[in-house]
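Researcher: Structure for this, please.
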Amino acid sequence: MPGVMNRYIKYESAGDQYVGRCVSGRDRLSKRFAESLPYFDLSDYSGLEREQKLRQLDRWIKDRMPAVASANDAVFYLFKMCLASLIHHREWLNETLHSESPVRMTSFWYEDIPLADHVTTKFPWTRTNDTPEFTGIPIDVLYMAKVEEQNAIIARLEERLQSAEERLLQDNNRVVAEVTEHMDKALDERAVGGESFSMGRDIIKKLDTLINISKQDYVHRVDNATNNGDDDEDDDNNNNGDDDDDDYYG
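Model: Predicted structure, token format:
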């Protein structure tokens, strides 16, 4: 690559890493070109719980590997990443693989893999502490990643501003209600507006009280009438039954 080597790709295996992203079928002109490979992301756990989860996963994988391979850390790491890729593309493989494919015969296919729901992929702007190092990304895609990262920051700021605006409106409504209540109370105590204004407010309050009492009394009367009607109906039914018995025995 004349004019490119040692100018844009400066480190030893960066060319191979870039080629690897290209042959994986990713669109060179899209942001998916910067997507990480599938991996187990346990960033939701911390401390002792995280260590226990990692040991559980590693032990499960090593128990299904040849002893010589499981003792080699580099081979084990490669095997673990291949397993994560298998889980991530499980649906596509299930539709594509032949029904008698050897892959379907392995324990990694038909057994329940621990922490399989933690297999994911990330972008440079959504990475976590568990995300593998991004390699083979050309400079234009890195700029694209920076733009996406800024867009994500702006989106989070908009959410925070909207939430703060809603809380501010709620506080303003509460303050206005409290101030209005205090002003009404102060005006009533000072009889501002003249004697007729004060008397008018008293009359309105008394009318409201009378209306509420009338409503309660009406509801009470309706309930009593309904209950009495049910009792009368029961008495009539009982009397009719007694008359029928008398007629039968008479």
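Researcher: Any notable elements?
Model: The longest helix spans residues 195-249. The chain is about 65% helix and 0% strand.
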